[in-house]
Amino acid sequence: MPGLTIGDTLPNLEVETTQGKIKLHDYVANTFTIIFSHPGDFTPVCTTELGMMAVYADKFSERGVKLLGLSCDDVESHKKWIKDIEAYNNGSKVTYPIAADPNREIIKQLNMVDPDEVDPSGQQTPSRALHIVGPDKKIKLSFLYPASTGRNMDEVVRVVDSLQKACKHKIATPANWKPGEQVVIAPSVSNEQAKEMFPQGYKTADLPSGKDYLRFTNV
């Protein structure tokens, strides 16, 4: 994905939102933050997505994670649309801010432009993109979906859990990992260091190569 991507610092933009003006670095502060764009207000998939973000807001809050939506429609449009979002999702409140970008400048700087889609006036539209930003203001993970495919919020929660564990311990999470399952110890950690760092112990997979790089532990 060209442009802003994993490892890059989030631009400290000032944006107008449904909860007033915010500067992105001030909003992120010392927390993990999910910034997600949607192609347009009053559209079907986006309505279900922002509604599901509202449903999952408590799960993200429990993990100390903030949410920030983004669309090219203006703030007044967002506020009217929120009523539909909440009604569709049985009253789950949209407690997070939704940023406006009528000039299509923010989506360019955040690498959230759909490369193929344009609106009826020929202007670029936002992609269905999502960045997870760390407390250091750097992009930790990015998702990019086509307009036809809605995001899976369980997967967003799962990757937040993975990222937060990786930040706290020198570990990584294997394929299909779920919270509570074993993680793998980073290759940069020697066996001697692993014994000190993981006193609960670890298990090394027996592989044909004889190399001991696949080490599992619980954290």
Automatic annotation (TrEMBL):
Keywords: Antioxidant, Oxidoreductase, Peroxidase, Redox-active center. It catalyses: a hydroperoxide + [thioredoxin]-dithiol = an alcohol + [thioredoxin]-disulfide + H2O. InterPro entries: AhpC/TSA, Peroxiredoxin_AhpC-typ, Peroxiredoxin_C, PRX_1cys, Thioredoxin-like_sf, Thioredoxin_domain. Its EC number is 1.11.1.24. It comes from the Eukaryota. The keyword Cell membrane does not apply. Residues 4-165 form the Thioredoxin domain. Pfam families: 1-cysPrx_C (PF10417), AhpC-TSA (PF00578). Thiol-specific peroxidase that catalyzes the reduction of hydrogen peroxide and organic hydroperoxides to water and alcohols, respectively. Seems to contribute to the inhibition of germination during stress. Belongs to the peroxiredoxin family. Prx6 subfamily. This is Peroxiredoxin.
